[in-house]
Design a protein that fits this description.
Low-confidence stretches: none
Number of strands: 30
Number of helices: 7
Number of domains: 3
CATH architecture of the largest domain: Distorted Sandwich
Strand order of the largest sheet: 15-16-17-18-19-30-27-26-24-25
Bound molecules: nickel (II) ion
Oligomer: single chain
Mean pLDDT: 96
Structural class: mainly beta
Shape: globular
């Protein structure tokens, strides 16, 4: 039994996973081939959590488990109460036939073994002159390109030159797809469009050791030193940094999550956000070639980013005075797995915060900016996704997704180029695609009762009140209900999405608010009636606002794997719930467009996308006035100095 109880918002611990799985496996009616897809600490309903913070009852600690009963071909949701005095089964709910839980990373490993053990697949390799021992097999979710009556994946193939991290994506096999039944773990079909087509040479595909070129020699060491340590403190999963405090969470599906973010302003702790996460990430490809046309994956909803996060290394992934948090996930059999150093917390110098030179006196006042960085990196097959949250001294919160890794490749046998891909060499292309993130931002601006709206700039027509024709003003659209809150970005008019508390006013009488400033985004390029658009209807709008419901967690629903679609945001908001002075959740969908470049090969420099949440009239003055001036440094480097 645990000696101290976890905080209600703490992610699940290793011991809790073992206990939950033990109880979950005892649920009645389960067959003998049961695997564990996910185990998470069920977050308390917000009212219960806030009541507990106020001195009320502690919410019951519960684990939410998703099981795969492979013999019976069913998913099962099990809730287990984790008590001081013992654990008990709360509920076991069988999912409807066809509802497919996400795919565990070990399940993918089993797919690889099944494919390599299949005689038809091995024969297809032999026809191409490929040794099966050198093949890299990669399963992909199938969407609606295979019948939903079975749990299926499609496996694609590449060839490795060695076993020391060679880039397999440099040798794609054209036109070879193995379809695997995951419940029985057998190959059900081989699609072979081009028997006899061997892999490309892989030339230029190696990124190790400088990619065949000598390392540059003109880099000198850089050190980040904080002689008195960092300015943040960590107490369990709670981090306090200057006036900010929040809890860091970890979720099997979303990976890094932030909770209960507050800012202490003049001695008063003010709430800003109850929970922030990237609730979905979907990547549709746009190339009709045989091994690419179906690719449209929900990396979060189908694969679960939590179990794919890296163990970070000091000095390499993170530089400076770093605090790491471990993440706990689990194997397919349900045994806990700890990922050491999964979440990185550190401070960064962030250049200028504010400055002014008084021309009369010559006096210079300024402050340097510092930001608190909370991050993790997940590897999803070929790609790496960095999830970086920044808190700043000016009261803003920023999210930045960093995209790196290896662009996905396919074989190419036609003599002419395709408009849907970029040739990387003879017989190899990388295809056009997009990455869409959906942030779920449960903002609580000075409390839970909030109102959402957007503001954009309008140019005033010339008239008696605007004789010069230069006046412009903000125009507001209030989201009275959910149907009004389906909105798109409009960079040309600086449309921003705000959440305000009408019950709290700033010094000029306006409601206090935060606004979301979109970063670069793009529209989905798939036809509206395409399979992926139906499955990811949340892509239809950049912004959605819903009334808080703890069951509404993911924009494409709980189980997007092989789902036909229409679940999630479109379904919930069809109810058109009123939103004025309600507990609102802001969903922001943003896309990274990717026409691959030659510079993305053989490994892609980081490209990023994201958004900023910024106070608007939340504070009465610049909240960073009290950041002390920086100490002038002793000397700077003379121009033209060249030593060493
Ligand atoms: Ni990309």
């Amino acid at each position: 039994m645990p000696e101290t109880q976890p905080h209600p918002l703490d992610s699940i611990g290793a011991d809790e996973i073992s206990r939950a799985v033990r109880v979950a496996r005892s649920a009645p009616g389960l067959g003998d081939r049961v695997q564990i897809v996910s185990v998470e600490a069920r977050e308390p309903v917000k009212t219960e959590y806030l009541a507990w913070k106020d001195g009320g009852l502690r919410p019951r600690r519960e684990a939410f488990c998703v099981l795969l009963d492979r013999g019976r071909r069913r998913g099962v949701e099990v809730v287990v109460a984790l008590g001081i005095d013992g654990d008990e089964l709360v509920s076991a709910l069988e999912l409807p036939a066809g509802a497919q839980p996400g795919i565990h990373n070990e399940e993918f490993v089993a797919v690889v073994d099944a494919v390599l053990a299949d005689d038809r697949y091995v024969e297809a390799l032999r026809r191409r002159g490929v040794d099966p021992a050198t093949v890299h097999v990669e399963p992909w979710s199938v969407g609606t390109f295979e019948p939903a009556t079975a749990r299926l994946a499609r496996a694609l193939s590449w060839v490795r030159a060695d076993d020391d991290g060679d880039n397999p994506y440099s040798r794609p096999l054209y036109g070879l797809v193995a379809v695997v039944d995951l419940d029985d773990m057998v190959v059900v079909r081989i699609d072979d469009d081009a028997p006899g087509t061997g892999p490309p040479s892989g030339e230029g595909g190696d990124y190790r050791g400088g990619g065949g070129r000598p390392y540059r020699t003109d880099l000198r060491p850089i050190s980040i030193i904080q002689p008195e340590g960092p300015s943040f403190t960590l107490d369990g999963r709670k981090v306090c940094w200057q006036k900010w405090d929040l809890r860091i969470g970890f979720h099997p599906r979303e990976g890094l999550t932030l909770h209960d973010i507050g800012y202490t302003d003049d001695g008063e702790r003010r709430s800003i956000c109850h929970r922030a996460s990237i609730a979905e990430l979907v990547i549709p490809y746009g190339d009709p070639s045989p091994t690419t046309h179906f690719k449209a994956v929900f990396d979060t909803g189908e694969y679960g980013l939590g179990s794919l996060v890296n163990s970070l290394q000091l000095g390499c992934d993170c530089l400076g005075e770093i605090a790491y948090l471990d993440a706990v996930t689990h194997a397919w059999d349900g045994s806990p797995v700890t990922i050491p150093n999964a979440i990185c917390v550190h401070e960064e110098d962030d250049n200028l915060l504010w400055k002014h030179t008084d021309e009369h006196s010559g006096r210079v006042d300024r402050a340097r900016s510092r930001r608190l960085v909370i991050s993790c990196i997940a590897t999803v097959g070929n790609y790496e996704y960095g999830f970086f949250w920044y808190l700043r001294q000016d009261g803003s919160i920023e999210f930045e997704a960093k995209l790196t890794g290896i662009v996905h490749t396919a074989g190419w046998i036609a003599p002419e180029r395709s408009p849907y891909s970029l040739p990387l060499g003879d017989g190899i292309v990388t295809s056009n695609h997009q990455h869409f993130f959906c942030a779920r931002l449960d903002l609580d601006i000075d409390g839970v009762e909030n109102t959402a709206f957007d503001v954009e700039a309008v140019s005033e027509p010339r008239g008696p009140g605007n004789p010069d024709g230069m006046a412009f003003r903000p125009e507001r659209l209030t989201y009275e209900s959910e149907s009004r809150a389906r909105r798109s970005v409009s960079p040309a008019t600086a449309r921003r999405f705000r959440v305000e508390n009408t019950g709290r006013r700033n010094r000029i009488g306006d409601a206090v608010s935060y606004e979301l400033i979109p970063g670069e985004s793009v529209e989905p390029m798939q036809q509206p009636d395409s399979s992926i658009r139906e499955r990811a209807r949340f892509l239809d709008h950049n912004v959605w606002v819903t009334r808080y419901d703890p069951a509404e967690r993911y924009p494409a629903g709980e189980y997007p794997n092989q789902a036909a679609g229409e679940d999630g945001l479109p379904r919930w908001t069809a109810a058109d719930r009123p939103l004025l002075d309600e507990d609102v959740v802001l969903w922001y969908v943003f896309g990274a467009h990717h026409f691959p470049r030659l510079e993305d090969w053989p490994v892609m420099p980081v490209t990023s996308c994201g958004f900023v949440l910024r106070p608007v009239g939340f504070f009465d003055y610049n909240p960073a006035l009290d950041v002390p001036p920086p100490e002038p440094a002793g000397h700077c480097r003379p121009v033209g100095a060249a030593d060493g």
